[in-house]
């Protein structure tokens, strides 16, 4: 499953296992004694339920959901309930999740945002943390990361920022009230702070400009005023090496041919700055991502190309560091780690 701090509904691939086929990572509901379909008369199956981007519906006495994500992908299936076993001595009460038999790439999503249907909300988790491992090579060879529910033994080394809340604009169309909103203050490249007003990283009256951390989004995305300053700096030091007219995945347009180490040295280290002296340092060796075909791109895109008006710190810039979410004290902690060996 993909751990996603940017969405709330958890869902899994549900398929009955065949003894004649090799084992799969899908879930067979018939093997669970606590599995149950959510009935159509459940309040969650009402057409005007705000927890879903499209209205739920009743089909063949099953509650059907459809859920759109920011990148335009769609997850749909039936709402069900089941218990989660967290340890030999700890099992949750029945939690609501989605059950799909689509043939999509992901085996499922573990929704971890602040919504009432998210996994931490339903399971009454007060604190969780993860460590995203480095992605290496193309195709990706991804070592196993680490995920804690509850106390992290490394938390004494973390530096924390308070989550921001904006009750006056909760219902604005461009604001996500269920996201983890961070107090970003600036960006540094090669030791120099870019001239980006702090207000660019805060939501305006319509909700645009919110800065959120999202483990389910691969790259980082910035609104135009911030992105243009980053691009201006990159062009000034490595513009002659840019791949003209090239846009990777419809969203990354600072891409290069040639030696990525050399180009990274031209650009220098990058730092995302937050309140309370918290920094996310991206070493010059990790500024570029290998997107295949000998092309390397800076892992930052323009938010408008993603179809959003928010700043999003994606998982590319969360690699090799602890990220902890304290839901009681409403704060997020960051700490250095080597995720393949972080236990």
UniProtKB/TrEMBL annotation:
Family: Belongs to the peptidase A1 family.
Gene3D superfamilies xref list: Acid Proteases
Matching SUPFAM superfamilies: Acid proteases
Any one Gene Ontology cellular component term annotated for this protein: extracellular region
Organism: Fraxinus pennsylvanica
Domain of life per record: Eukaryota
Domain Peptidase A1: 1-335
Record keywords, A-Z: Aspartyl protease, Glycoprotein, Hydrolase, Protease
Keyword Protease: yes
Parts forming coiled coils: none
UniProt xrefs under CDD domains: pepsin_A_like_plant (cd05476)
Swiss-Prot/TrEMBL GO biological process terms: proteolysis
TM region(s), chain numbering: none
Protein name as annotated: Peptidase A1 domain-containing protein
Matching PROSITE patterns: PEPTIDASE_A1
Molecular function terms, GO-annotated: aspartic-type endopeptidase activity
